[in-house]
Design goal:
47% strand, 7-stranded mixed beta sheet
Length: 131
C-alpha cells in the first residue's frame, strides 16, 4: 500500500492543522489507517487510528479531546484534525495502513509491538508548534 501525506507546517500554540493521507495500491480487503508521530530524539508514538470495516476509532491519551481522525471511504483517504496544538506536539507525523486492526490499535493504545511492520507507511510530514 502506498501512502501520501500532506498538511504539515508551522503553527503557534493553540492553533490547528489538518493532515491528510491518501492510500493507493495493495490488495487488502480492509485498509485500517492510523497516524504516528516522532518528536526529535523521541520514540515513535501511535496517536490515532480508524477501522476501515466498522469505523471504530482509538486515540492515545496524549491527543484525546484535541485531535480527530476521520476517513473518506470512497477516496481511501484519512484525515487528522489537530486542534489546540502545543509545542510538545512538534514532530514528524506519519500515516500508516494495515490489513490487520489489532497491531495498529494496540500501538495507539500503547501496548503494541513497536517492531511491527505495516503494510503501508508514509514518508512523513513535519509539524512544528511554536510557543
Amino acid at each position: 500500500v502506498q501512502l501520501a501525506e500532506s498538511g504539515g507546517g508551522l503553527v503557534q500554540a493553540g492553533g490547528s492543522l489538518r493532515l491528510s493521507c491518501a492510500a493507493s495500491g495493495g490488495d487488502l480487503i480492509y485498509v485500517h489507517m492510523g497516524w504516528f508521530r516522532q518528536a526529535p530524539g523521541g520514540v515513535r508514538e501511535g496517536i490515532a487510528c480508524i477501522n476501515d470495516e466498522d469505523g471504530r476509532i482509538a486515540y492515545a491519551e496524549s491527543v484525546q479531546g484535541r485531535f480527530t481522525i476521520s476517513k473518506d471511504n470512497g477516496a481511501k483517504r484519512v484525515y487528522l484534525q489537530m486542534d489546540n496544538l502545543q509545542p510538545e506536539d512538534t514532530g514528524v507525523y506519519y500515516c500508516a495502513a494495515d490489513g490487520a486492526w489489532g497491531p495498529l490499535v494496540d500501538l495507539v493504545l500503547g501496548v503494541g509491538n513497536t517492531n511491527y511492520r505495516f503494510d503501508g507507511w508514509g514518508q512523513g510530514t513535519q509539524v512544528t508548534v511554536s510557543s
